[in-house]
Amino acid sequence: MNTPNAQRQTPKYVDSQRLKAIRALLGVLFVALSWVGAQSPAEITKQVQANLEKAPWEATVSGKAQLPDGSSQDLEFRLQVLPGKEQLARVEFRKPGSLEGNFVVISDKEVWNYLFLTNQLIIQPRARANIQGLGVNLTSLGDFDQISEQVSLKLLGEEKTPEGAAWKLAGVPKDKTQSYASMEIVVLKADPRPLSLVLKDSSGKTLAELNFKNFKRVNLTARQLKKYPADAEVVRK
Amino acid sequence: MSVSNVVRRTSYVKRQTLNAPKHDPTASGVLHLARFGYRPSVTGDFPGGGSWGWFFALVVTVGAHLLATSQAQSLSVGLFASPGYLTPTLEGSLEAGGLTLSARLKRDAVGFGLEDDLEFGPAGRFVFGARADLGFGLQPLGWGAEAYLRGSLAQVGLEARVGYASASRALLWAGERNFGGFAGNLGASYRLDPNHTLRASLAYAGDVPGAIFQASTLGLEGAWALREGGATYLAGLGFRMGAYALLGWRGELGEEDTLLDATLRLGWVSRLELGLFQEELRLRLMSTIPLGGAPFEAAASLEGQNLRGDVSYDNGNQRWMVWLRYTFIFD
């Protein structure tokens, strides 16, 4: 087409236009890469939540928690999570030894609390269940969305862990009546999931320090997670 | 544990009242095993049974109201029969002001209970309460009352119960044992470590299945439970006028989620208890072992969904009983 513009598209002019386009493209890519490299805490928690909701998983959580009387208690439990329509989490205690055999099952609506010594299963609506007897709200451990909703998080940076590079997040609870004043979470970058969780009080003293180990994807069913001894006394409240 | 971390949840419904705590020592087992047997001392008709139809109608009306307003947590309707005696039974519980109120009624007796609990989350729970019964079909009026506490916190479990009845308990409520006066038990359990638990109990009761000596007396029992390879083994000794041995096993059978619980006592108390449990079906059997003069007595209880049936036979008193119940559960 013989337009004035077409007449102006000499090879030199085309090269210069290409150069500009490439520069613009590189600029956009640089901005995009910069944005990806410096994830916001909200983006990280979204990634973690999406990753944990992909398929059923289990992990061993161990560490220390401060009891209400001020003493420190070794804590270890197996955490099993079934994401999806019928979300369920099961916490089976291994330490302290006095709680071995006890477990808690958490669903959207209910909390099941099994007590080995009395062979009782106490079923309560989740809204009024007391599951913080060990200084840790067990419902948060399998629900990262809940953590990001309840805590104002910021990204402190990255750190190396035996499992790979990880993000370190810190935050304070939006609800000041929470039993802790600050929280630190380390999240694995390659497979976004928590590696550790630390809760501190207002004086900086550690209330709970939990490490997530032996994370693996497993086949879990609601029936498996809800299993309890067939002779247990069931108490509905 | 500070009080601020203790959530008081007083409203509660025992959905499956059949289930006793595992390996309940004999002494305290007097109370739990009462569910298996029934030995009324009166062989004739219970007096005053026919004129209380209006009272039943009132209770049923109240029950229906509770159903309509969804306030009741459970309501059980049943029919109880023994030689020359037939009565409907009604049991209900209701949340009110953080407490659980309960009531039970048969044609010639009524009882009321009040219960509260202390929650310690995954670490444990204690429940405590009191109950009173009035037998208005008796001359003079019979009554009974008891208070109880049971539960666990961390590695310690406790169970205490004390009561008094002016008449035979069998007259005050269906399925109760046949003795009056004082009764009580104090039991404790302690987990030495995840696999070893010690249990001890002291009880005062007048009617224990399989006991050679059937009069109110003290009983003492101690047992050691070992958890190994998915099963629990129980070994212990008891003393009630004379000594007896205690052996038990509890574990799953095959892969069908069927759980068997067997306990054998041999000596001055001789009886075998078997429990077979599946997700929706619970069967309990008890038979005394008539050695050394212990009277023969057998009982069975089957529970599925919300339906439960109890039967028992007592050769010593030539008595039997049948009790069928259906329970409505409300959220």
UniProtKB/TrEMBL annotation, chain A:
It comes from the Bacteria. It holds the Pfam family LolA_like. Residues 89-219 form the Uncharacterized protein TP-0789 domain. Keywords: Lipoprotein, Membrane, Transmembrane, Transmembrane helix. The chain crosses the membrane at residues 21-38. This is Outer membrane lipoprotein-sorting protein. It comes from Calidithermus roseus. The lineage of its organism: Bacteria, Thermotogati, Deinococcota, Deinococci, Thermales.
UniProtKB/TrEMBL annotation, chain B:
It comes from the Bacteria. Its main location: membrane. InterPro entries: Beta-barrel_TonB_sf. Keywords: Cell outer membrane, Membrane. It is found in: Cell outer membrane. One of its GO terms (cellular component) is cell outer membrane. Gene3D superfamilies: TonB-dependent receptor, beta-barrel domain (2.40.170.20). This is Uncharacterized protein. It comes from Calidithermus roseus.
